[in-house]
Fold this sequence. Notes:
Blueprint lengths: L5 E4 L4 E4 L7 E6 L10 H20 L2 E6 L6 H10 L3 H18 L15 H13 L3 E4 L2 E4 L15 H6 L15 E6 L17 E3 L1 H13 L3 E7 L3 H15 L6 E7 L2 E3 L2 E2 L10 H6 L4 H10 L6 E3 L1 H24 L16 H8 L4 H17 L4 H13 L7
Parallel strand pairs: 3-4, 3-9, 9-10, 11-13
Antiparallel strand pairs: 1-2, 5-6, 6-7, 7-8, 11-12
Helix pairs in contact: 2-3, 4-6, 6-7, 9-10, 11-12, 12-13
Amino acid sequence: xxxxxxxxxxxxxxxxxxxxxxxxxxxxxxxxxxxxxxxxxxxxxxxxxxxxxxxxxxxxxxxxxxxxxxxxxxxxxxxxxxxxxxxxxxxxxxxxxxxxxxxxxxxxxxxxxxxxxxxxxxxxxxxxxxxxxxxxxxxxxxxxxxxxxxxxxxxxxxxxxxxxxxxxxxxxxxxxxxxxxxxxxxxxxxxxxxxxxxxxxxxxxxxxxxxxxxxxxxxxxxxxxxxxxxxxxxxxxxxxxxxxxxxxxxxxxxxxxxxxxxxxxxxxxxxxxxxxxxxxxxxxxxxxxxxxxxxxxxxxxxxxxxxxxxxxxxxxxxxxxxxxxxxxxxxxxxxxxxxxxxxxxxxxxxxxxxxxxxxxxxxxxxxxxxxxxxxxxxxxxxxxxxxxxxxxxxxxxxxxxxxxx
Length: 405
């Protein structure tokens, strides 16, 4: 069966059929964590949504290159390291390790590449230099800034008009900016900065701005043009808007990412979950309470990825019950076919075609889950059917809802 993947493209504001830049290869970049604190459920939702998409792409394409970066240079990191009286390197190393441990509990696959900003400073400097030479960036007061007025398409992702944004700006504009929307590509170091967050550049010692990092790393691993760029809805503006502007200006023949996919917020009592509001719940918090990583994964996938998800205890409790129901069928299967290990029941060809078709339609996970429940009912009526059990367990594995260890 041939499946066509359809994804909602924020750039065009409509669902589109995925047509890759290169035949038989999918290239996907997703904005990863800024490693100054443990991942909360908002971060976790992004991780599991794009893990689900990655699993679908691996099922349908011969080659998938999935890049998810780690931001280990940032003002928040500097401030947290000062608060804890530890070096930036110690903080980012510890938090990165905790992040990997937490997302592993959610049964996520490891991306093809996981580049760190600190290991890509030369690529970032080269990209900034290209923007200056192309007259899309300028140097002022030891800062390098992107000139938004030099890019007529600025605002196309977020559907905002440049003149309206400038007119509506209420923020006090620093003297080194020509325009209130111009954004920093390189900022000078402060004399109090930890040396590990300070880098040499043609414009003096300092560190890169946030937006330029993703453009530099995505182009290194995926090329100037690639297929899918994912991230949370909160990144649409200004982060992703700025990525498009600087990448297309650095490489004038580039369209950068073809499909922009954004997952909805996680809210708590209707408010966006964020570290700033201090209303966040971490993956670790729930694991410490004895909640299963698979239940957390299922809970975060249960609401369609583009819609906001409001966290509550019942949603997690319901997900836990579903995982227990699925586990019971797996245990019964292993008991019925006593001479077989779990791997015996997992084969790519047995994955439910209905589930794949549902996910291919803009990751319709609810419909996929309904198909899984239907298979479980069929097993109840055909207890000794090996094919049905293989279908169920293979599909469960495909969705990341069983740990195959």
